[in-house]
Amino acid sequence: xxxxxxxxxxxxxxxxxxxxxxxxxxxxxxxxxxxxxxxxxxxxxxxxxxxxxxxxxxxxxxxxxxxxxxxxxxxxxxxxxxxxxxxxxxxxxxxxxxxxxxxxxxxxxxxxxxxxxxxxxxxxxxxxxxxxxxxxxxxxxxxxxxxxxxxxxxxxxxxxxxxxxxxxxxxxxxxxxxxxxxxxxxxxxxxxxxxxxxxxxxxxxxxxxxxxxxxxxxxxxxxxxxxxxxxxxxxxxxxxxxxxxxxxxxxxxxxxxxxxxxxxxxxxxxxxxxxxxxxxxxxxxxxxxxxxxxxxxxxxxxxxxxxxxxxxxxxxxxxxxxxxxxxxxxxxxxxxxxxxxxxxxxxxxxxxxxxxxxxxxxxxxxxxxxxxxxxxxxxxxxxxxxxxxxxxxxxxxxxxxxxxxxxxxxxxxxxxxxxxxxxxxxxxxx
Length: 430
What we know:
This is F-box domain-containing protein. The chain has helices at 9-18, 42-49, 68-80, 98-113, 127-132, 199-207, 284-294, 310-318, 336-342, 370-379, 407-414, 416-420; strands at 57-63, 86-93, 118-125, 145-150, 171-178, 191-196, 214-219, 237-238, 244-249, 257-258, 264-268, 300-304, 325-331, 359-364, 398-403, 424-429.
């Protein structure tokens, strides 16, 4: 007998559960996990059917005008999952018909009846489906993670209060709608991702969320909005626990923040104004003042579509001397002075910028600073892990670069000695 057939049922169940497929795979496909295990043999079928965890991940993508099978399959999942917490992923794109809407309403009602078991909810809904889920309010006692995208929501639609009274909720991601259109106990959350309609709205949200450890905000700036001025030294908002922060578009909210525990920072400067010329860059002062005020030990920094001069980039990196990972996306050209400050030259007497840097990502249009880039890499890449005696810099391990078609092969040729010493060069054209 093959050893696999001698496995105890509980061990086999654990193995099958560990092999679960990503949540985006449609549960309606009975050729995939966990259905496929019911076709192996009688033992596997019995173990699969009687293992509730294998049926606790329910992903339903309805496309077309015949979703009746989805209702039947959903009932199978709910029955076989017993009483264990559920991970729900629901989306649909259907052809309009009365029969289709009736089936979808039935599916929503069936899921809503089990809302007390929801642990994760990933929902892609229209306005009608959102209203249909009204019975879940007050019954989401197990819900920890919410990811919701709502379409067709008019501006006069009332604040969505379905997720009030969710004592275990810690993570929220809201797409396609402003965060303040949802009533949520922000103070208990540790992770928030979503949109704010203005810098003032963003700051108000952060004031309600003192326990955040991870936050991603897209902050719009409308024609009648004003950026947030630099806060007086005694009045910045202190978010003691925030370690990862990604802010897109308007960055003036940084003027009002003190982030002492921040380790990862990503800034995407994207113009969202629909009137007149692009707004002048308002990043350098808010970013450098926040970094200086916070005194945090930043390990990872990402700047996307941020047009910076050498002195501006250097001033930012002087406030982040402990960087290990740096990503610069959308540069026009490599900056000569900046690259020379990264180069380890003990005889020059100038402190090396970000001496602990191990990984660098560059996305650039031109390669006029290729010579300086090669000098920088060669100065900070050596044999083994130990650097030159007395060196105050860490070995550079990886460069990922996206630029012109011929640039990366040319760099690989010039950096071959460093590559042979273990340096990793990756990348390609845009």
